[in-house]
Amino acid sequence: MSHFGKLNILVISGGAPRLTKPLVETTEEEFDSVFTFNAKGNFFALQEAAKHMADGGRIVTFSTPYTVQPQPNLSVIAGSKAAIEAFTFALALELGNRGITVNAIMPGPTTTESFGEMVSAEEQAQLKQIAPLGRLAEPEDVANAVAFLVSDEAAYVTGHTLHATGGLA
Asked: What is the pTM of this model?
């Protein structure tokens, strides 16, 4: 870090592969894998960012609609993302005195290659039908929400989960 100076913006957008399995059938190994990737990975990335973040910096994490609208067979994903939200809110309190904002984005169904692999065309059509805007998110929709949270216009927004769900959550 000494060569590049302080960190100004951190966006943590990774997520564990979607584990679709009833809670009662989830193995300890599967639980550990998802929580290690999501919760533990985010925790230590946030910890390091806090040490190197410039005053006035911006941190954005990613959540999921499953934390507010649980779905069957997605409990491990929901739990690991709920942990990320808790870390985000706690860190917002810890870093606020330095002008650093810490927020989460909750993206809705987004037309990415990985989403297309996880969700059938029929399910995607159903989601479009119930979506208030009549469509799924494009990657740019989510990127624009992130861009807002790291901008000067969002300097007073912290400890918040921004729902970029198109009204689906």
From this structure: 0.92
Range 73-89 burial, b when 16+ CB lie within 10 A, else e: ebbbbbbbbbbbbebbb
Separation CA 74–CA 35 (nearest Å): 13
| Domain around 91 | 7-164
CATH number at residue 56: 3.40.50.720
| Cβ contacts of 141 within 8 Å, gap of 6 or more | 110, 164, 166
Instruction: Quick: pLDDT tens for 138-169.
Output: 999 999 999 999 999 999 999 999 999 999 88
Residue 50, SS3 per DSSP: helix
Pairwise CA distance, residues 99 & 84, whole Å: 21
Tally of structural domains, the chain: 1
